[in-house]
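Database export, one record per block. Field names are fixed; values are copied verbatim from the stored entry.
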Amino acid sequence: MICHFNPEHQIMLRYLFYFTLFGFLACKNASQPEVTDFGQAPLATVDQFQTLETIAFGSCNHEDLPQPLWDVIGNQNPNLWIWLGDNIYGDTNDMAVMKAKYDKQSSKKEYAAFRQKTPVIGIWDDHDFGLNDGGKEFGPKDQSKQLMFDFLGVSSDAPQRSRAGAHSSYTFGPEGKKVKIILLDARWFRDKIVKVGGVYQSNEEGTVLGKEQWQWFENELKNSDAQVHLIGCGIQMIPEDHRFEKWANFPNERKRLIELLKLEQPKGLILLSGDRHIGEFSSLKDETGVFNIFEITSSGLTHSYEEVGDEPNRHRVGDLTGEKNFGLLHIDWSTSPPQLKVELRGEENQLIATTKVNGE
């Protein structure tokens, strides 16, 4: 049987066909994540045999806010990105919510494109830990840790997956050009601190790292033959004067940290921190003036403390900034010891601050 349609029917059927097709495509596209062009592409993986020459780092990145810095950072062609905490703003006991927030950040088109060409490592601070200003009292910290490692692309058999705490270390590069990166966990083992009138009080007996992590950290330094050492932590290590979270809230722990660094004197030492929504350099010299401990704080990537004013820090080198910022470390291996230059840069890739650090 042959059916014949007049021209009007053919036109109507054609319109119906296209309407159905476009509706299907619209629904399909609406269900896709933000990063459809990038989501299936392989991510850059950590290669510890690589010689590192440019390392980028930063902190305080809210998954619900615009992401203006990833293209800028990517244009610097860093060999590695280091997350320094508050990598998302989880702030939840519900690990399904935490996972959804990590997934949202991973699907951001700017970050997804960045991850295709740049390997990442990292440590958490409080918001991605799950509890604002929290410590060892947070219940689902092991589940939270696994989600962070999933986000970072840490292999399922990595040692930090199975031990208490999220601390980790990496050594990059060949003999004579080694960079050791030690990431300290200031959340998992940390004792409570009390806030009075908006000011955190000193905990003279409490711990930041805990016995197990301290032993691990000491061994990592003693057994290192690297030419450059980077020690990252979510909270600031040198500053003493502001009222917020910092190592100085646990004075005995800060003293132990400084004494350990003076004892081991790791070559090319730079401390990295985040958390504060400001950027600044801090420096601490021993009594002889010979051994200098230098810290660069870089924060934040999506939001910052623009009205910070002149916050006290007796150890500050140069000025602080309340602009959105990221950090860069350039390593010049043509000299011995290598020359180290650190930078803070902003949304337009403008140079906010820079200094050279003694690589000895």
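Remark 1: Residues 1-39 have pLDDT under 50 and may be disordered.
Remark 2: The first strand starts at residue 54 and ends at 58.
End of record.
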